[in-house]
Structure prediction request, 447 residues.
Amino acid sequence: MPGPERLTIAPGSTWRNWGRSVRSEPRFVARAGSADEVAAAVRFAREHGLPVKPVGAGHSFSPIAATNGVQIDLRWLDGVLDRRELPDGGALITLGAGTNLYQLPALLGPLGVALQNMGDIDRQTIAGATSTGTHGTGLAFGGLATQIRAATLVTADGEVLRVDEREHAELLPAVALGIGGLGILVDVTIECVPAFGVRAVERRERLEQVLDEWGERTRASDHFELYTWPHAEWALTKSNTRLAPGEGVTPLRRGREWFDDAFMANGVYSQLLRLGAIAPVVVPGINRLAARLASAREFSDDSQAVFVSPRAFRFREMEYAVPVEAVPEAVREVRAFIDRKGWRISMPIEVRCAAADELWLSTAHGRASGYIAVHRFAGERLGGYFREVEPILRAYDGRPHWGKMHGRTAEDLRPAYPRFDDFLAARDRLDPDRVFANDYLRRVLGP
Prediction:
């Protein structure tokens, strides 16, 4: 996408995120197509005494991107900016911060490389996904931010700062997953691997058996995840195995893919969700039907085609990372709590896992982690679901996903992150005047 010929700054208007859980009223919207233009927008904000926040796809459910100051639209900062081949056939690929993940097959495919792992949604920008701790699943694989080897950001004084193994290397564990508190990313350099295929096996199974076998199942597959519907005793499991180099793929037939993903998973299912929002009494029956209709299928395809699942309807989400071994007990406790409360919860609980890493604000910092995500259809009232499930997951030493809904504060987050104060020191160094602050960052990082 070509960038603007020069920086434009115009009066703002109401902004809403994808999940319709956040709205804000930026005073100005800046459209920038280069690092220098982003820097000029930051200087403009400082001159007017306004905070500044970048915005990408708006796919975070938390108010992490909200601002009443200057909003910087990064959509023109996209595409492959640089590449350096690696001896193993991979490459260091520098991407503009506004590159959407769904653009990657067209950008990386011709180069013969891919991201090492991905989540199941590809609407986010690369900067938004890494800055909030987006992850996929698989005990041997870290989140997207762990693949960052260098980054360029604009700091609070309007300077362009390069962070890599030669310059300011000590900042990389903070900048790679910076939750928007350190500066505005304008590009990131990702260590990509040689392109690979994935064999997917999807089955409907008894939930209790899957939970009993959780440890074994996560070790047996490269990428394992499950979905379980409240009010139903079944789970949909997805076991994905990486194919050897050169091994061919057998994608789903186009008709089967349309029927499963477009017609059933998004078309029919979204209508059932709407029915449940109008008449909650039918939700348990709908969930039992949805669980029974979850179709078994096996196929193989390019990695991103397998990892990503289309989502045509809007929803809201809270996700917590707990020690991986705590997942079965935590899932059982959440389901039992739903039953005791008499809630009618239409959307499934999603369960995944990831490797430990050393990024300072990563939800997987220092420990292999299991991820438990709860959802509500955008047409439903949240009620107390997220608020009352959150203490259950906190009790398992849970850490909330930065881009999803939660109620945590700096006071209770500090003990959960051994390097929390190191991150705050980096923030004091790069943004001492809190140019990039908003209500969300004041809540989770302190004033």
The first strand starts at residue 8 and ends at 11.
